[in-house]
Amino acid sequence: MPEAKKKLKLALYWAASCGGCDIAVLDIDEKILTVAELADIVLWPVALDFKYKDVEALADQSVDVCLFNGAVRNSEQRELAELLRQKSKVMVAFGACACFGGIPALANQFDRESIFRRVYDTTPSTDNPGRVRPQTKLSVPQGDLHLPEFYNAVYKLDDVVEVDYYIPGCPPPPELVWEAITAIVEGKLPPKGSTLAGERSLCHTCKRKKEDKKVTAFHRVHEFVPDPEKCLLEQGIICSGPVTREGCGERCLNANMPCRGCFGPTPEALEHGASMLSAAATLVEGKEEAELAEVLDGIVDPLGTFYRFTLADSLLRIRNKSLGLEEKAEEGEEAAS
Amino acid sequence: MTQAGSPKSQAAAGEGWEPKVVAFLCNWCSYTGADLAGISRLKYPANLRIIRVMCSGRVSPAFVLKAFHEGADGVLVGGCHPGDCHYLEGNYKTLKRKLVFERLLEQFGIEPGRFRLEWISGGEGDKFARVAEELVKTVRELGPLGSTAERLGRADGLALRAEGGGGNA
């Protein structure tokens, strides 16, 4: 009989996220029952009805592990990150958004005003004649009401609090989640700051045939059905495998879809997006600038392609405002509609 | 985020501001060209910080972004003329990257004039001086860009724990 251990205290939180990371926790299937045996959950907004004040009432460092998913888009998420950091011994950035900003960080191409104008004024389905915008404070006879402040930029978790471990992925695959939980329970965690995934690039684990990397045209995934046996890059599909950390189980590749980079950069990559841009552009054969340009124009939306999950972890982080951000936002709207 | 609101950033916007331009020059052609400009006593602005690299093909777009990230207002990459690369094809790699990278920079809101790729041979000291002159003039007209920390500081004024970029490992 194993010695009866004190149950772990576990907190799960979602910030700027889609909910997929919370579902990823449930994707460990029946093992979730083991988790329930081993740990008491003190906060899990998606599943359980604990309140923030319940967390506030806990002693500092009394939560063993916090799995924090989602990026930091507003002041509420930042406050919760700080609160959970204070209450938790181990803080885990769970999923691509917490690790690198993820999809929400693509909004860093626009500032708050551009986003609000789009959402509250110009979408075809908006009917807002009073041009009402969210306010952080409203006084009513019963008292003052508050809403969180919407930031100009999206931040990754370690911008605002110290993070002990990173579990990347959109969402993290169940095997990785289970491995992490096991490591936590058994107290066999690697040094702080580690990413709980592979160390090499995805190409190392990819089983597709790699022959000659020469590209004569780029294709987007909806334009072309690639050969499932061959390297996708060699077929002109942008696959972020060369610069992306392994450990995902190649779910996309097995579905004949390219890697889009949700595991973030390999430890060696100086910059995820720029490294992939470099890798992709140099595959093109030729020496004449005009011909090269024609092929390379097939890479549409370089920022969205190469920084799909890592814009909040990039060197430049946000769009520089002096180059007509407003007009660019409008153009983006037209392209999107 | 420590730099936000520092005297440095205030100076950047004020009178005393001088453009900072980082120039990555290849050892075999462009650096020699810059050297020739000096030997020939040609005048060019002192705003360039020259970094000698073995080949323009070694200049990853990430290096250029790092320069902007740390507060460069402009970046020049100089390589051998097509066909003249010491390593045969290094400069073609640079050209291929440039064709996508310029569009990426525009998406990041970096004005086209702030980044320039030029072929400068060892004999073109005059071309080096002219390119330096033009680039500094353009950047001066565009004004300060500000480091990532400064631009993030202006966005939300949050005190971030560390500067972003370069992976989380």
Features:
heterodimer, A: 337 residues, alpha/beta, Rossmann fold, five-stranded parallel sheet, 14 helices, 9 strands, globular, B: 169 residues, four-stranded parallel sheet, 6 helices, 4 strands, 14% strand, disordered N terminus
Shape of chain A: globular
Q: Uncertain runs of chain A with pLDDT below 50, 5 residues or more?
A: 323-329
Mean pLDDT across every amino acid position of chain B:
89
Please report the first level of CATH classification, the CATH class of chain B: Alpha Beta
Structural class of chain A: alpha/beta
Cross-sheet strand order for the largest sheet of chain B: 2-1-3-4
Task: State the name of the first-level CATH class of the largest domain in chain A.
Answer: Alpha Beta
Rg of chain A, Å, rounded:
22 Å
What spatial order of strands do you see in the largest sheet of chain A?
Answer: 2-1-3-5-9
Describe it.
The complex is a heterodimer of chains A (337) and B (169). Chain A is an alpha/beta fold and 337 residues long. Chain A has 2 domains: 218 residues, 3-Layer(aba) Sandwich (Rossmann fold); 105 residues, no CATH class. In chain A, strands 2-1-3-5-9 form a 5-stranded parallel β-sheet, sandwiched between helices. In chain A, strand 6 and strand 7 form a beta hairpin. The longest helix of chain A has 13 residues. Chain A is globular. Chain A starts with 7 loop residues before the first strand and ends with a helix. Chain B has 169 residues and is of the alpha/beta class. Chain B has one domain: Rossmann fold (3-Layer(aba) Sandwich). Chain B contains 6 helices and 4 strands; from the N terminus they run αβαβαβαβαα. In chain B, helix 2 crosses helix 5. Chain B starts with 6 loop residues before the first helix and ends in a 13-residue tail after the last helix.
